[in-house]
Amino acid sequence: MAGDSGAREGRPMVRVEDLRRSYGTGPAAVHALRGVSFEVARGELVALKGRSGSGKTTLLNLVGGLDVPDGGRIHVDGTDLADLGEEGLLALRRNRIGFVFQSFALVPILTAAENVGVPMRLRRADPAEREERVRLLLSMVGLADHAEQRPTELSGGQQQRVAIARALANRPALLLADEPTGQLDAETGRAMMELLRAVVRGEGVTALVATHDAQLLDLADRVLELNDGVITEPTAAVAAPTG
């Protein structure tokens, strides 16, 4: 096991090779991705830049195992997604990947604490462990005093903080965020990106964040630009930041 762990540490967290995905057939087909290749080093915060329709969401869905490519390969944390069946992909999403969505996707009838605890309930985590982890995460995102409030009682920025805490519940290796600041004002959006950067450093998570907000790109370790389904500014993978 120690040897396998060491081998994993030497690999990038994400490796995408010649990834292709189209929707429809014939002249009306939409080619969302046209041979995308890149790597994300462990501990990196990589921003995925591109206007609406450039393929960002499609790429995140493929890396997260929510969709299947037409061609190419995806490796996450040393695992080739093509080698996993439905149960394997479900386990990967539950245990190794955290998702943050633009729409927050919180359960409206649950409190902030209960929303954060949902992934751990699905994993059947020990209740005492779950409660302690929920308290820690809500404190980390600055919502310790809002644990019992429901989504409708929280601002948009607070709801996104709950969503980030929920994504971290099962200690994922990879965090995928799809336009997490899209419904927030500029000031709150920047605060969310700063929080994501702090989370990457504090929790040892790797993050791939899709955004079209140029003002937030300076908070990333590296930027990849998607344009009409191709990376137009490919950048070599860098070593994970230290300190």
TrEMBL record:
Alphabetized SMART domains for the sequence: AAA (SM00382)
PROSITE patterns registered for this protein in UniProt: ABC_TRANSPORTER_1, ABC_TRANSPORTER_2
GO CC list: membrane protein complex; plasma membrane
InterPro entries assigned: AAA+_ATPase, ABC_transporter-like_ATP-bd, ABC_transporter-like_CS, ABC_transpr_LolD-like, MacB-like_ATP-bd, P-loop_NTPase
Domain ABC transporter: from-to ranges: 14-240
One Pfam family cited in the UniProt record for this chain: ABC_tran
Keywords in alphabetical order: ATP-binding, Nucleotide-binding, Transport
Name used for this protein in its record: ABC transporter ATP-binding protein
Organism field: Streptomyces roseolilacinus
GO terms of molecular function: ATP binding; ATP hydrolysis activity; transmembrane transporter activity
